[in-house]
Amino acid sequence: MTSTDARDTELAAQYEAYPYPERDPREETKRLLIGSPSHLREIDYWVFGARRSRSQPLRALVAGCGTGDGAIMLATQMARSNRPGEVVCVDRSEHALKIAKSRAEARNLSNISFIQGSLTDPETLPGQFDYIDCCGVLHHLPAPLETLKVLEQALLPGGGMGLMVYAPYGRTGVYMIQEALEHLTPFSESPSTRLDIAKRVMRTLPATAWLRQNGNFGDHLTGGDAGLYDLLLNPRDRAYTIGAFLDLLTEAGLEPSCLMEPARYDPALFLPDPKLRARVENLSWREKAEVAESLTGNMATHVAYVVRNGSRPMPPDCCDPTTVPVMREIPGDELAKQILPNSTLPFAFGTLTVPVPLPTQARSILPLIDGARTVGDIAAIMQERGLSERKFFTVWAELFSRLESLNRVLLLPPL
What we know:
This protein has helices at 6-17, 40-47, 69-80, 94-106, 144-153, 174-184, 191-203, 210-213, 219-222, 224-232, 242-251, 274-281, 285-296, 332-337, 362-365, 375-384, 389-405, and strands spanning 58-63, 85-91, 112-116, 129-135, 155-166, 254-260, 301-308, 325-327, 344-349, 352-357, 409-411. It is α/β, with parallel strands linked by helices. It folds into 2 domains: 6-169 and 238-308, Vaccinia Virus protein VP39 (Rossmann fold, 3-Layer(aba) Sandwich); 325-411, no CATH class. Strands 3-2-1-4-5-7-6 form a 7-stranded mixed beta sheet, sandwiched between helices. Strand 2 (85-91), helix 4 (94-106) and strand 3 form a beta-alpha-beta unit. Helix 7 packs across helix 10 (224-232). It is globular. The chain starts with 5 loop residues before the first helix and ends with a strand. GO terms for molecular function: methyltransferase activity. It comes from Acetobacter aceti NBRC 14818.
């Protein structure tokens, strides 16, 4: 059943006037935008536990594709790796879909299709899917839970989703400006008028405005008209603490298989005091995540891969000699160069950089991860270099655990 209201009508007008994010199809020849969710290697690992054959067709839905960032990334990665399947994009904005289509055409993608329709109407969805992307959408809808339940029903058995919602603390300052602009330029005015007023406010924004102090996002600075409008003039913009987000998932019959990045939600990583770490260890997984969000204060979004309750996948044992580790994106030799002499990896969780301790052998092991060698192959090479097999597997278990929690090293599914 369709769920809408006056604010939803204004939202539709916004994305028709200023499709988001602002993209030029001509840029597709120069770069591929990479992110989470919906990176193919992440889907393989965090949704399917690296157990779903790569030869099995993947039917994916991008629910609310906008101008196509996630859809173009996934379809391109599937095409480059000769993965069978299709990416179906749904959005109600004709203007946004036109841009997404042009981007797909610029890349000669034949595994992607587009449907104009509203997610608030269940009849829009064409069948069921192995994977559903709903990134940056739920927090704008009149009834997020209702829509999430519709998407859950559209999952095939064993399937999962990639979600992103806004988080409140890392967006400090945004809602203050939104409130002011709602008075200065109400939703009843045209999008072009509202944008003009917002630009005038930003040109003379007081130095004390919290938005000026917040470096966790930059849409109002580098995102063009669409970015400024989406951040400060959006007629409906909810933000979820991690607790509220987990509650939303539970109500929809879902549970997270991964919060991105997993280590970001572990406060022990940035609380070096032994007494504090001991207390952290006594907390539940949810409490740890809540403490991490509250203490860091810089989480502007929550990204999660989710599955149906009780169906979280169990990846293979990372120490099984037949498993194949793979770098998520940064090549192993490049990541190894980032390791400091004290064997710590400076890792940026948004605007917070934390030193992550790694085994001293990490610099030698990482360049060997090429997506083809098995763990057993790597162990044999390291044994030739003087590291015993027993010692290697002790080191590897620690190294994989750390880098998996940073979403940097994953496992490859079978062919």
